[in-house]
Specification:
Distance between the termini: 70 Å
Largest sheet: 4 strands, parallel
Strand content: 15-25%
Number of strands: 8
Length: 262
């Protein structure tokens, strides 16, 4: 069979991803990626510590990140993303910026982190009041709240699960329940934290129900990385990705609804 009419493969555009050793949602990341882009993932070395602030600091050390980026250089990605929310907010805004600088020095390419992408997405959406959903313990969740507040964004509500392991096993229904409990009147946007928490399929459902933009850790990471390539993430009915979806009715008075149901 003559296949010469097919030509060769299309030129590859690559996004390098450095993820923590326990990251389990490779397939979810791919769902935001257009056909002309490939993801190239590498992981930080294993450390026998549960999800905590200590773990966040260990998996975000500059030498650890730089080594991860160096493992990707041979395949020449055009941008590198660090896919970890807690690891990129634990040092505050200055720490997040220093991480990007370290990765860029190691790979000579633009770099983004999940928490940096979060602030970029909130600015793009014009959101100044955010509700948070996390699978973390209280101490890790408070660190996220401090990071967001440092950026001048008000936290209007928060729900967390207190998990220290196996976060990727959390079912969608638990994510939805937490979201409903976190959103309050006057909230501009809901952020679902942790790159190991599945979110892709619940984003459209929650946006339709809550009538505000819903963004998640993996979504903003891929969105920001692809932005550096001058291309767009794919995700049906997701406000961050589809500007046409950004206009809609205001959020109902959640507090009044809750009072009326008692």
């Amino acid at each position: 069979m003559d296949v010469s009419f097919l030509g060769g493969p299309r030129p590859q555009r690559g996004v390098g991803v450095v993820a923590p050793f326990d990251f389990a949602l490779d397939r979810e990341l791919w769902r935001w990626i257009p056909d002309e882009v490939s993801l190239h993932l590498t992981r930080t070395p294993y450390v026998p510590i549960e999800v905590s602030l200590d773990l966040a600091r260990l998996v975000s050390e500059h030498e650890t990140l730089s080594e991860g980026v160096r493992t990707l250089i041979a395949i020449a990605p055009e941008v590198v993303a660090y896919a970890c929310t807690s690891g990129s907010f634990v040092g505050g805004i200055a720490g997040e910026r220093a991480m990007c600088e370290a990765m860029t020095r190691a790979g000579a390419v633009p770099s983004v982190t999940t928490s940096g992408a979060l602030l970029e997405a909130l600015a793009d959406l014009g959101a100044r009041r955010v509700a948070l959903v996390t699978p973390y313990t209280v101490s890790v969740t408070r660190s996220l709240e401090e990071y967001v507040a440092e950026a001048g964004v008000r936290v209007t509500g928060c729900a967390f699960m207190g998990l220290t392991r196996h976060i990727w096993k959390v079912p969608y229904r638990d994510v939805v329940d937490m979201a409903r409990g976190a959103v309050r009147r006057g909230t501009d946007c809901l952020f679902i934290s942790c790159t190991n928490l599945p979110t892709y399929d619940v984003i459209p459902q929650l946006e339709a129900e809550l009538r505000i933009p819903v963004i998640s850790a993996n979504q903003v990471t891929m969105w920001a990385a692809l932005r550096r390539l001058g291309t767009r993430a794919v995700g049906p009915y997701q406000t961050l990705i589809d500007p046409a979806a950004r206009s809609g009715p205001a959020l109902p008075d959640v507090e009044q609804q809750q009072e009326g149901s008692t």
